[in-house]
Structure formats: C-alpha cells, structure tokens
Write a structure and sequence with these properties.
The chain has about 290 residues and is of the alpha/beta class. It has helices at about 20, 45-70, 90-95, 115-120, 125-130, 145-155, 160-180, 190-205, 215-220, 225-235, 250-270, 280-290, and strands spanning about 25, 75-85, 105-110, 135-140, 180-190, 245-250. The chain is built from twelve helices and six strands. Helix 6 packs antiparallel against helix 10 (about 225-235).
C-alpha cells in the first residue's frame, strides 16, 4: 500500500481493510496521524453509529463460533489490548464494542498500579495470569505496555532494565501467539486539546466526577514524554505477529467503529466453523420426537 510522502500516512480507500489502514510500522511518525481522522469511513457520526450497530450481530456470531470451537479442543483465542492516554475512550470501547458480544466468552482485565504482591514478581507475571482461555476474547484495559510507558516517563526503573523489557515483551507476545492467541494491540490516539475538553466535561458534570482524578492534570505536564514513550514502544514492539494499530480517537464514535472492525477482521481471519455434531442428528431428532 502506498504512503503519502509528505505526512507518512497510508493512502486508503473504502475497500482497504481497517487492519491495513491503521497498522503502524516501526519508524512511523505519530504526529503525522490526524487524531480527528476517520480512515476508511466516509460517513459522519450518525452513519458511524449505525455502522457500529450493524456490526454487532456478525461479530457476536464470530465470537460464538470461536467459543464453540474450544469445546472440541481448539486452543485459539483473541487478545485485544487497548492503550491510550487518560480520556482516550478505553471505557467506551469496553461498553460499545466488547459489550456487543456474549459476556460468557469475554474476559476483561483492567490493569491498575501494581499491588505489593505483583511488584514481587516480573512485570509480566500478572499479565500471564490474565491471558484468555481457549475460545475467549480477552481484553486488556491498559496492559504490560504500562511498564514501558509510565515506567519510562516517570523513570521508575533504570534505562538498562527498561530496554530489556521491550525484548521481554516481544518474546512474551511471540509465545502467546504461538499458543494460538491472536493479538490485536490498539493505541487510541487522542490530541492534547481533546483530552482537555473531556477532562473539563468531567469536572463540570457531577455524574462524571467519579471518573476524574487530580493526577490526570499532573500527567498532562508529561504529554510530550508520553508521546515519545508510545513512539518507542511501537518502534520496538510492532512485530509481524503482534503489530500495533493506531486509531484516531478524538471522535469517540469513530474509535469504537474502528476497533469493532479490527476485531471483526481478525475473527474472520481465523476462518471459524461450527463444530460438527459428534452424534447422528437424525437419530437424536427421532428420539426427541418419541420422548
């Protein structure tokens, strides 16, 4: 696929898969990606919401097939990693994308600051414990990347240790993919101005105060450092088996639509089938008729 030589952004059309349009390679310039852009999608907010609603049934069907396959021994699963700055829309993705599939086949883990117990182990210890089981869609609200994002910005570990973590992450993700898990890593790319507006709304609305933390404003002072930390993480950890997808997130409706399409495309790529019956269907129908 060609690139715009001035901006470094990919040229796309409505027939381009989201996974191709939103995938970023090492060396990509995050500042060249329009946070208000809507790659692939030509409509506005109303059509975007309609398109998201239309995807609910086919994605739910694909997820059920994934879950059903596991009952016959399949080891396949999906791991959807959602990263982004505060207010980038991670919660909205959980509600409007992940919320559209059967909860029995989904495992969501929201990673907060490590507990004392977790700090006694490798930074990947708690991540391994949360990996999806066969047939599941596992969703990480933040992830192991916090340990190379926050840790870099706030200098929580020596740089030599930080450098080793990128290699450890790549090895870990290679192992996870090798065990049958498809990894989808998404950065919700929000602008500093849009974040300011969303934080202001949280302060203005009593029903949003619970979502606000004074620390959110403190972190804004490190905006540029976080953008650099994301750039380095993508440079070091966007691989063939676990690429990074950068989703413009200033328009919440688009970010949700894009993530839903990424999930759908990856599920379709698994070529899922309903398990064949292990019994004579006609015989059981006759037995049921007589019962």
């Amino acid at each position: 696929m060609g690139k715009d030589t001035k901006s470094g952004t990919k040229k796309t059309s409505s027939s381009t898969p989201y996974r191709d349009a939103l995938r970023v390679e090492p060396g990509s310039d995050l500042t060249a990606i329009d946070t208000r852009g809507t790659p692939i999608f030509d409509g506005g907010k109303t059509k975007g919401k309609e398109a998201l609603a239309d995807l609910a049934k086919p994605v739910s069907d694909l997820q059920e097939r994934l879950f059903a396959e596991a009952t016959t021994g399949s080891r396949r699963s999906i791991l959807l990693v959602i990263q982004g700055m505060d207010t980038a829309g991670k919660g909205g993705v959980m509600r409007h994308v992940v919320g559209n599939v059967d909860p029995q086949g989904v495992a969501i883990t929201a990673f907060k600051a490590p507990t004392d117990e977790e700090l006694q182990h490798s930074f990947l210890w708690r991540i391994r414990k949360a990996l999806p089981q066969p047939g599941q869609i596992g969703v990480f609200d933040r992830s192991h990347y916090e340990d190379v994002l926050v840790a870099r910005v706030h200098e929580l570990v020596p740089r030599t240790q930080l450098s080793r973590r990128y290699t450890q992450i790549n090895t870990f993700e290679e192992d996870v993919a090798g065990s049958g898990t498809t990894i989808i890593k998404v950065m919700l790319h929000i602008s500093k101005d849009e974040q300011k507006e969303r934080l202001a709304e949280r302060l203005e609305r009593p029903d949003k105060h619970w979502k606000f933390s004074p620390g959110d404003i403190d972190e804004r002072a490190h905006w540029d450092e976080y953008q650099e930390a994301y750039r380095i993480a993508i440079d070091r950890c966007s691989t063939g088996i676990a690429p990074w997808y950068v989703v413009p997130a200033d328009r919440k409706w688009y970010a949700r639509l894009a993530v839903m399409n990424l999930l759908k495309e990856h599920l379709e790529g698994l070529d899922l089938h309903w398990p064949a019956a292990h019994f004579d269907v006609g015989e059981q129908q006759e037995r049921l008729r007589r019962s």
